[in-house]
């Protein structure tokens, strides 16, 4: 009986001496700058429409060989579109440029990936959401592009 009490007491002391971790850690700061946005991205979703809510057009507008590609945005302003996985014929791999203007508008020009003057709607250090308008046959269409590191 004495051994059970000693073991139980030791176990209790061991547990009570463990320090709980502080759960109020500071979240990472994600600025809409070229240095913070730079990275390798995969496509999550493309949405389009005349007004909100926009429709998901990812799989209806892109070939399966485009859905597994990567977009590399380098902090220097160079971009590289990599046709990976199922390779398109001809391959869509290409180099280009990208930038973020002083007013927070983003432009990407890398082969078939062309986004002009897009508003960065959100960026959480991993997922980047951009919104832009494009005039098609005289009609202004909204496009929302979501990519993830």
Integer count of domains: 1
Q: How do the strands of the widest beta sheet line up side by side?
A: 1-3-4-5-6-7-8-9
- In total, the number of strands is 9
Tell me the CATH architecture.
Beta Barrel
CATH superfamily (homologous) name? Calycin beta-barrel core domain
- Determine the structural class based on helices, strands and strand pairing: alpha+beta
Query: What is the name of the CATH class?
Result: Mainly Beta
* Secondary-structure element pattern, one letter each: HHEEHEEEEEEE
Describe this structure in words.
- By secondary structure, this protein is α+β, with helices and mostly antiparallel strands.
- It has a single domain (30-148), classed as Calycin beta-barrel core domain (Lipocalin, Beta Barrel), CATH 2.40.128.
- Helix content is 16%, strand content 44%.
- The protein has helices spanning 2-17, 34-37, 58-61; strands spanning 39-49, 55-56, 70-73, 78-82, 94-100, 105-110, 113-123, 127-136, 139-148.
- It has an 8-stranded antiparallel beta barrel.
- The radius of gyration is 24 Å and the shape is globular.
- The relative contact order is 0.18.
- The model is unreliable at 1-20 (pLDDT under 50).
In a nutshell, what does this entry contain?
It contains three helices and nine strands; from the N terminus they run ααββαβββββββ. The protein is an alpha+beta fold.
